[in-house]
What we know:
Blueprint: E1 2-10, E2 26-28, H1 34-50, E3 55-69, E4 73-87, H2 101-109
Antiparallel strand pairs: 1-4, 2-3, 3-4
Amino acid sequence: MTTTIVFPLLFAALFAVGSCGIPGGFSYIDPNSPNFRKAMNFAVSDYNMHIDDVYYHKATAVLKAKSQVVAGQNIFMSLELARTRCMKNDPSANYCPLFYPQQVMNLLKN
Length: 110
């Protein structure tokens, strides 16, 4: 089971404003950039904290990655999440395999 979620996040205090895009306008950003990865990890962690499920979810795909330069930087992301086999009360959950990896792969191919 995968879930697609959208996280509009404001990171004015966390990220320095670079020269990316027109001020006030959204522009696509590299989903592999350190700033985006940090924001994505925060968003997934926040999602796991607030969802009513005993299992962790993790991002399986970045569907959209944009930023907006204003007084700081807004990061807009659309992620595909999947449920893992790791329970939230497991303190040593470093590697969390998906519940149904073959089903997730079939969804990503379509």
